[in-house]
Structures are given as C-alpha cells and as structure tokens.
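Researcher: First entry.
Model:
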Amino acid sequence: MFDEIVEVLKRDSSLHCEVGPRHIRVPPVDPTGFEVRILQTGRGAYMVWFDGWHEEFDDYSEAVRCFAFGLSSHCRLKVLLKGKMRYRWTVECQKNSQWAEDSTTGLLLFPFWRRTSVAYLANKANLEYTPPAQLRR
C-alpha cells in the first residue's frame, strides 16, 4: 500500500522505518526530532501522527503529503509539558521565514498543577514534498 513512500524514505539513509501492511512508522533520528506515522484506518481513511499530534484524512495524497511534511525541516512541533508529561502538540510550518502555528492536539487529563515547559521538536529529512491543503491556508 505505501510502497512509493518506502522508496522515497530509502533515499535518506538517516531514516529508518517500520513498515506494516497498513502503516509506516519513522522514529526520530535524534532527541530533537519526533516520531512520524501514517496508518490506513479504513477504506479511503488515513491518520497521520507527529508524536502526540494527529490528523485524519480521507484523501491518500493529502495524507502522504502530511506524512512527508512531518519528516521535513519545514515542519516543527511545539510540545507543552506539565512536569515531564507531554500534553499538547501544535504543528508549526514555515511561512515567509517565520514559524506559523497551524493545528493543536491535546490531552484532556494531565497534571495541571505541575510546572509548564515548552519544547520544540523538528525533523530534518531531505524529502521533496508539497504541504497538505490544511497547512496551506
């Protein structure tokens, strides 16, 4: 199903991927990166994850573009933590040399009383991609 994605991933020797019949998982290359996954959830339905952030797609091409975007240096993930627990993830994309927030996914239950900190994570794969429509607003 994801054969063409696997072929593209092979071009970057720093990337390792786990491939299943309905999913691909790419772990971060280093501690400053984040995991990227794509999963076929049903007929014509896909989900893409960047660490804890996720988005559903009903278009295969858009899901693949989002997956590639997450691996590229044009995507950054703003992660909010309470203590050591990650609880909110915001996808940011580069627009005119500036980082712009796009969408956020968060947990409903987290240790709100703990100190808040922010981490920025980014992957650096050398992949050609077109941002998905949701990120081209």
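Researcher: Second entry.
Model:
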Amino acid sequence: MGRLKLEQQGKVEQAGVRGNEIREVAEQKNEDAARSAEAVFSIEGVDDDDRAAVEAAVSESSGIAKALAESEIRAPGAEVGESLNETSRESNEYANQEFADAQTAAEMTGDYSDVGSGLSSSLEQSGQEFQEIAGASDTLNAELQEMFAQQASQLEGAFG
C-alpha cells in the first residue's frame, strides 16, 4: 500500500481513536450525572425552602449536564466528523484520479498495450483501495455520530 493510502488510512484510525476517547468521556459524564441525579432526586425537602433549594439544584445540574454534552461530546464529535468527511472526500478524489489515469493507461497501443494494460489494472486496484478507505471513513463517521448523539441526549436528559 502506498504512502498516500497509508496516510488516509491513518487518518481514519486516528479519528476512531479520538472517537473512542470521546465515548469514554461521555460514558463517565453520564455515570456521574446518573449518580448525581439519583442523589438529588432522593432528597425530600422538609419545608418550602428545602424543596426550592432542591429544585434549584436540579435546574443548575441540568444546565451543567447540557453544557457538558456540548463541550465534551457534541463539539469534539463534530470535529471528528469533519475530519472523517475530509478524509472520505480526499480518498474519493484520489480514487477518481486513479480511475481516470487507468483509462489513460488503457489507451496505450501497439507494442505498449501490455504495459498499458498492466498499468491500467494497477491503477484500477489503487482506485478501489481509495474507495474502500472512503467507505470505511463514512461508516465510522456514521457510527460515531450516532453514538455521540445518543450519549449527548442521555446526558442532557439526566436531570429531567
């Protein structure tokens, strides 16, 4: 596999690693929110002041959860998505160039037709490999974006 394909594949792998890091943070934030929500919802205020303080704590906690969902999940998840979209776009461009070059190589004639045929086949294979990288990038992006959305929604809803 050539340098450019390895580079593109590396970008997909790096995005996957970053996506897993975001997932781990999201899971931890959701666990913290769930424990905190359980604690605050188990408090029974004795009088009106206590109940008002509990309601204020729930409201403030809800605001914190929403801010964390944005800063810890949605924003970094969008960055990962942009990176994967760029990798897919680049890989598709490279694939299209390889296919166009394969067509050109196939036009070699006469004594050079065997060379052109071999080159064309090699370029076709290379184009397919770039398409596979683009597909892997698109698939990973879709999976990560769905997971980010679920994790963020869960965190945002932790306090009602």
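Model: Note on the second entry: Helices lie at 3-41, 48-106, 113-156.
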